[in-house]
From TrEMBL, chain A:
Ranges where the IBB domain occurs: 1-66
Source organism of the structure: Rhynchospora pubera
Protein's UniProt name: Importin subunit alpha
Ranges annotated as spanning the membrane: none
Any Gene Ontology CC annotation: cytoplasm
One Pfam family hit: Arm
PANTHER family in UniProt: IMPORTIN ALPHA
UniProtKB/TrEMBL annotation, chain B:
Keywords carried by this UniProt record: Cytoplasm, Nucleus, Protein transport, Repeat, Transport
Subcellular location: Cytoplasm; Nucleus
Single annotated GO MF: small GTPase binding
Any Pfam family: TPR_IPO5
Importin N-terminal domain segment(s): 23-103
Name the record gives this protein: Importin subunit beta-1
Organism: Rhynchospora pubera
Principal place of residence: cytoplasm
Keyword Repeat (UniProt): yes
Length: 539, 873
């Protein structure tokens, strides 16, 4: 009888062939073709999405990158991506402690090979997150010795030792504030600054990295660096011979130094001169850090903002709002939001640079919340300007958008939109107010009367007051002789909300509320039949 | 006619071509002229004991092939053809088949049992031939039935069970079958052929036995008989078949196994230690299957939340571990000489090691202390069997246990492994190289604080590997694997991947000369060498390896040209040429992607002309696989060259067209469609001159019923790519493309959503359609968006339908929301009319705004703002 070939059922059991394949299998090696295809598919998918999101954001010029969500203070850089080889120890045991002793002996030796080996080992121990040995390494002794090694004698391997020592210090300064303090107390800063003069770019780069970490720590640390001439040395790194990696590092370190107020105007000017050049860089990392530096400077006060404007970079900044990377757009909009809070002349400069069209795009297109929020804040600052500036907002057709955002936007964006509307109505000319009312500002402001932010409430009341005043002028045209805007307020429930505000626990708001009620509405039981004339002397 | 068909059937097997062709033609003519008579004659031929065995055999085969085919369309055709045959003729055929089960010719019985099952597979689901089971059972239960009739009938029952689905048989039929089959297995049955047929039939009937296994009494009985059969003294074949049943039971009826586990352990252990190899192999297979089943259940336990019915998991492997592992370790010592040089060998040590690997994956750390003493005891013994077994055991447990548990072991054994690469026995070297590869793959973590491979031991490792790659082919192949995983460890390791830079050149040189080896009898070594080369290039530290990679690029180009110039005579030559070209084009793709994304871009740009020339010459050799690999590489190249790719289009277009129209080899078509997208993104509107041709073919492909459906979603996405590239110029294709999109989206509504594969397909198709709409809307946005107005309504309806039927995955939903935003973006206030009477979009958006998928949420926010803006404008 021939053997009956009952074919195995793959669903139920693994046929011998499949089992045989599992014998000493090296699957990846044989699936190369499928993997290559998958890689290309992935590439294709992300390119397609890039192309689409570029279009969706209108006409940005280069492919976008992943958004970065942090806005804000100096970002201490953590250590280098882990090295090719290990720190010899993973967790502290007695044996490990002995080895540690060996390393420290090497560090203290006078033989440069031993020093180098020990420094490298320490650097590696430090570059592993959560290494229990790290704490044991960061002692005053060891750090002091590392600082000494920064200025090692002339020796062919000297620069290598300097890099390793600076690298180890970089890793320490990426840790806690206490760790950084050990480093600064050991006198590392002047020696690191000195290293910026080294003829070797790898030494300079590592020193900048360490200084950047120190600068991120505190204002005191930043002043320490500047006092030792660090800023001047850093600015001299920007020259036509510098490598891109050096420029990136220098820009990052500079941005960290700018996080605090610089001691003198001349320093700010010198920094701005460099930043102005860097703003034309095509390297996204450099561009991003440059913009951060500018945005920090704009944080320090109107003097700095004035200098920023004088350095004539605002025009470039406005253009950068349309950059495709959120890493650039985020600091730029932060900087411009600060500039827009300055005086009317400075704001006019922004409008003349075409900022409104850019803001409109930021607000309507696919941008992150934090960017939209700052864009909206910028708009509200502009709305607080002159009537000409308010007119520019109206002409840019921004009002309907603001009203929509004030109703449906995210909480923060919503508030900024209400600020914008309140500012525009408070400061607008009668014609402008009529146009604003036509777009629906009354409802927007009335809806805002339930908020708990007293400053914002007061601004809304101011805006409503201006509107009602214009309404009094309209009264003449009205057959019934009523203030049409007061009527609108009543119809949208604004009057009820206004009456509720009498219970709001804030004197200024209480007084303003009473004033509005008394001026435009007959109080119940009042003997007056007609509303009072609005008083004109207390705007 | 009866006489004639015998002659024709015999002549069709004649060695003389002319006779054979003539006979085949006359059979075909008969078949076409009168199919029912033709089938009847075949069945008569098969059942006629007077006819020669050769004509009966062919009659059976033709009959079987007239009922079933692998291709599903053909199978459906044959089914319809059988159904439409006159019932009285079908009756005669079936009677004659049943009669043949009692034939004295074994081959005729066997063939007829198979044909019966094929007829059953058509008729039983249609509730026809309902007396078949009864008739078959009648044969078996007749007291005086001859053994060979019982044997053939049981075989037929087994095949029927295999062909029909459980729901097509009534429970009482199932009960009767099981009773008859189990009866045939017991020692009461004197004929061992019958017992073998019975146990094999049970194997096929197990799927039907759900209810019987749920019943404790019946279950006990079935298990008892199977276990008894597993130790039956008669023949190894019977015991093997019984163990095959146990393997199947372990996987189908795991939930009921617990009471029998002690018995089963004893049975399998005895078989592994004392029975013939074919039985012992199945006994090991039992444990391998159990381990896989438990791993699956572990995954399910993790995947299901606690509210769902808990998955039963008895941890059988874990509980048996202390006895199971020693049993498996013993098998490792039973290697055969040269087993690694022969791909057809499958023996106890191979099965045992593979099982040990599965056990290790199932229980993790616990396996380590049970295996390590064996390793230490045997690794240095004089007998190579011991050394190999120790190494194989160690290599087998590297997956499953934690890296923390393994790294000290790997670390302390590392030097030994390296020295074992010089063992005098090639089998030991083979296993050692494989084990080193596993250490690199599973235990080596370059990015961790304390990697096993470090600057101290790397030089030694490289010396050994580069020397051993020249070893015999099977060892060399494993060494390639080791290099592959060593390199892969440095993927994304940043500057850590510098570690391999000093060896980069020598690794490449070694791999290239390995690929050139003349002693390579099988093609695997060459493929491994090139795939390893790819991995080494891909994971290298680009800033330091740029020049060497650039040189490699030239070398590979040279090699491709060599293949084109090869003398190709036979089809074998052709296949070799095409396989080699596929490997080389693969290397080119990897180099293009590696250098194209770094400072090496200029290298690729400089060599682009050369490469395109090479690809075109490869296309000139015409072979589908090369076609695919070269296409893939061209797609990668287009991204690097950008708009400069335009200069190649006039020559390349011919081949692109060839790829796009190759619907028989649908992968070629699919890859070509993808490359169109790549080129669109590279060329933008410079692709315009070719769009007429491309669009015509793509539209034809879409309406081609023979084209594999998996190509259709990418074609729709490709419409979007083209529209984005050429913008308003897409207008002339819109009237053709849009109706295709509409009808495909409607077709989705009528597909079977209970079938998981179908749901997956619907999702892909929808995503493709949405991408097409998005590309068009964004393409027309700035110039001629009104042109989309007539199609926007059906898009909105499509989005609504997709939203409401709830089978979409997140990617589809995201594509739908994005398309909705694109409508608002492109048409602005124009959407007021479209959304006037619907509210679904608000629900859709608010649902997505709550999504945990960040990108979906972001897309929804974007769409929401645009829609609000558009509605208020």
């Amino acid at each position: 009888m021939p053997p009956s070939p009952s074919p195995p059922r793959p669903a139920r059991r693994t046929p011998e062939n499949a089992r045989k394949k599992a014998y000493k299998e090296q699957t990846d090696v044989t699936n190369g073709r499928r993997r290559r295809e998958a890689q290309l598919l992935q590439l294709r998918k992300s390119r397609r999405e890039d192309t689409l999101s570029k279009r969706r954001r209108d006409d940005a010029s280069s492919p976008s990158t992943e958004p970065e969500s942090d806005i804000g203070p100096a970002r201490p850089e953590s250590d280098r991506p882990s090295s090719s080889d290990p720190p010899p120890l993973a967790c502290a045991t007695d044996a490990d402690s002995n080895k540690l002793l060996g390393i420290i002996n090497g560090l203290k030796s006078e033989n440069i090979s031993l020093q180098l080996e020990a420094t490298t080992k320490i650097r590696k121990i430090l570059s592993v997150d959560g290494n229990s040995l790290a704490e044991e390494v960061i002692t005053a002794d060891v750090v002091a010795r590392l600082v000494e090694l920064l200025s090692s004698k002339k020796n062919p391997r000297g620069p290598q030792l300097q890099v390793e020592a600076a690298w180890a210090l970089t890793n320490i300064t990426a840790g806690t504030s206490e760790h950084t303090e050990v480093v600064t107390n050991a006198g590392a800063v002047p020696k690191l600054v000195k290293l910026l003069e080294s003829p070797r770019s790898d030494v300079r780069e590592q020193a900048m990295w360490a200084l950047g970490n120190v600068a991120a720590e505190s204002q005191r640390c930043r002043e320490l660096i500047i006092d030792h001439g660090g800023l001047v040395q850093l600015l001299s790194q920007f020259n036509e011979h510098a490598k891109v990696s050096n420029l990136r590092m220098a820009t990052w370190t500079l941005s960290n130094l700018c996080f605090g107020k610089l001691p003198s105007k001349s320093q700010t000017k010198a920094v701005l001169q460099i930043l102005q050049q860097l703003l034309n860089s095509i390297d996204e990392k450099i561009l991003s850090d440059t913009c951060w530096a500018v945005s920090y400077l704009c944080n320090h006060g109107t003097d700095e903002i004035q200098m920023v404007i004088e350095s004539q970079i605002c025009c470039r900044l406005v253009k950068l709002l349309m950059h495709s990377s959120p890493k650039v757009v985020t600091p730029v909009i932060l900087a411009l939001a600060n500039v827009s809070a300055a005086d009317d002349c400075q704001v006019q400069f922004l409008i003349d640079s075409g900022i409104l069209q850019c803001l409109l795009k930021l607000l309507t297109r696919n941008y992150q919340k934090c960017i939209k929020n700052q864009a909206c804040r910028t708009v509200s600052n502009i709305c607080a300007g002159t009537t000409a500036q308010i007119q520019a907002i109206i002409d840019a057709k921004m009002v309907p958008l603001l009203i929509q955002l004030s109703q449906h936007g995210e909480t923060d964006i919503k508030k900024e939109a209400i600020w914008a509307i309140a500012n525009a109505t408070s400061g607008g000319s009668p014609d402008q107010i009529r146009s604003l009312v036509g777009d629906g500002c009354i409802i927007a402001l009335c809806n805002a009367l339930v908020l708990s932010d007293a400053d914002l409430l007061y601004a809304c009341l101011n805006g409503l007051e201006s509107i009602l005043k214009v309404g009094e002028m309209e009264k003449m045209k009205d057959e019934a002789g009523a203030n049409p805007y007061a009527v609108l307020m009543e119809e949208c429930g604004g009057l009820d909300k206004l009456e509720n505000l009498q219970g709001f626990n804030n004197d200024a708001i209480f007084e303003k509320t009473i004033k509005l009620l008394e001026s435009y509405w007959v109080e119940e039981g009042s003997e007056f039949e007609v509303p009072k004339e609005p008083s004109t002397d207390d705007t | 006619m009866a006489m004639e068909i015998t002659q024709a059937l015999l002549a069709a097997q004649s060695p003389d071509t002319q006779t054979r062709t003539a006979a085949e033609a006359s059979l075909k003519q008969f078949q076409e002229q009168n199919l029912p008579q033709f089938l009847l004659s075949l069945s008569v031929e098969l059942s006629n004991e007077q006819k020669p065995p050769e004509s009966r055999r062919l009659a059976g085969i033709i009959l079987k092939n007239s009922l079933d085919a692998k291709d599903s369309a053909r199978k459906e055709y044959l089914t319809q053809q059988w159904v439409s045959v006159d019932p009285s003729i079908k009756f005669q055929i079936k009677e004659s088949l049943l009669r043949t089960l009692g034939s004295s010719a074994a081959e005729a019985r066997h063939t007829s049992s198979q044909v019966i099952a094929k007829v059953a597979s058509i008729e039983i689901p249609r509730k026809e031939w309902q007396d078949l089971i009864g008739k078959l059972l009648g044969n078996v239960t007749q007291t005086f039935a001859p053994g060979f009739l019982k044997q053939a009938t049981l075989e037929a029952l087994g095949y029927v069970c295999e062909e029909v689905a459980p729901q097509d048989l009534e429970q009482d039929q199932v009960n009767a079958i099981l009773t008859a089959v189990v009866q045939g297995m017991t020692s009461a049955e004197p004929n061992s052929d019958v017992r073998l047929a019975a146990i094999r039939a049970l194997y096929n009937a197990l799927d039907f036995a759900q209810q019987n296994f749920e019943n404790q009494v019946e279950r006990n009985f079935i298990m008892k008989v199977v276990c008894e059969t597993a130790v039956s003294k008669e023949s190894a074949e019977i015991r093997q078949a019984a163990f095959e049943c146990l393997v199947a039971i372990a996987s189908i009826y795991y939930d009921y196994l617990e009471p029998y586990m002690q018995t089963l352990f004893n049975l399998t252990a005895e078989a592994v230690r004392g029975d013939e190899e074919q039985v012992a192999l199945q006994a090991i297979e039992f444990w391998s299957t159990l381990a896989e089943e438990e791993m699956e259940r572990q995954d399910d336990c993790v995947a299901l939340d606690e509210l769902n019915s808990p998955v039963l998991h008895f941890h059988f492997i874990d509980k048996a571990l202390e006895s199971l592992v020693p049993m498996l370790l013993e098998t490792l010592l039973k290697q055969e000489e040269d087993q690694d040089q022969d791909d057809t060998v499958w023996n106890l040590s191979m099965a045992g090691g593979t099982c040990l690997g599965l056990v290790s994956k199932t229980v993790g750390d616990k396996v380590v202390p049970l295996v390590m003493p064996f390793v230490e005891r045997n690794i240095a013994k004089a007998d190579w069997h011991s050394r190999e077994a120790a190494t194989f055991a160690f290599g087998s447990i590297l997956e499953g246990p934690s890296v923390e548990k393994l790294s000290p072991l790997a670390r302390s054994g590392f030097e030994f492994l390296l020295s074992a690469m010089k063992d005098q026995n090639s089998h030991v070297r083979d296993t050692t190289a494989w084990t080193l590869g596993r250490v690199f793959e599973l235990v080596h973590r370059p990015a961790s604080g304390d990697p096993i491979v470090n600057e101290k031991n790397l030089p030694g490792i490289m010396t050994v590997l580069l020397e051993s790659i020249r070893d015999v082919p099977n060892v060399a192949e494993k060494v390639c694997g080791a290099l592959y995983f060593l390199a892969q460890g440095y993927e994304d390791a940043g500057p850590a991947s510098k570690a391999l830079t000093p060896y980069y050149e020598s690794i490449i040189a070694a791999l290239l000369s390995t690929a050139d080896r003349v002693d390579v009898s099988n093609v695997r070594l060459r493929a491994s060498a090139y795939e390893t080369l790819n991995e080494v290039v891909r994971c290298s530290y680009a800033p330091e390896t740029l020049n060497t990679t650039a040189q490699l690029l030239q070398e590979i180009i040279r090699r491709v040209i060599q293949t084109v110039e090869l003398q190709v005579v036979s089809s074998d030559d052709k296949e070799k040429q095409s396989d080699l070209q596929a490997l080389l084009c693969g290397v080119l793709q990897v180099i293009i992607q590696k250098l194209g994304s770094s400072e090496g871009k200029s290298v690729i740009l400089q060599a682009a002309d050369q490469m395109m020339m090479v690809f075109l010459r490869v296309f000139g050799c015409r072979s589908s696989t090369v076609h695919e690999e070269a296409m893939l590489a061209i797609g990668a190249l287009a991204y690097v060259t950008g708009a400069d790719f335009a200069k190649y289009m006039s020559e390349f277009y011919r081949f692109l067209e060839m790829g796009l129209t190759n619907f028989e080899e649908y992968q070629v078509c699919s890859i070509s469609v993808g490359v169109v997208g790549d080129i669109c993104r590279a060329l933008d509107d410079k692709i315009l001159p070719y769009c007429d041709g491309i669009m015509t073919i793509l539209l034809k492909d879409l309406s081609n019923a023979m084209l594999n459906r998996s190509v259709k979603p990418p074609i729709f996405s490709c419409f979007g790519d083209i529209a984005l590239a050429i913008g308003e110029k897409f207008d002339k294709y819109l009237i053709y493309a849009a109706p295709m999109m509409q009808s495909a989206s409607e077709m989705c509504m009528h597909l079977d959503t209970t079938d998981d594969d179908m749901v997956e397909y619907i999702n892909q198709l929808r995503r493709g359609i949405f991408e097409a709409y998005s590309g068009m809307l964004q393409g027309f946005k700035n110039s001629n968006s009104e042109i989309m107005i007539p199609y926007a309504r059906s898009l909105v309806q499509f989005i609504e339908a997709v939203f409401k039927d709830n089978i979409s995955d997140d990617l589809v939903t995201k594509a739908a929301v994005a398309a909705l935003g694109d409508v608002a973006d492109a048409l602005g206030g124009g959407i007021k009319v479209l959304l006037a009477n619907s509210s679904f979009y608000n629900e859709l958006l608010s649902e997505c705004l709550l999504s945990e998928d960040y990108t979906l949420k972001e897309t929804a926010e974007w769409a929401h703002t645009l829609i609000q803006h558009a509605l208020q404008s």
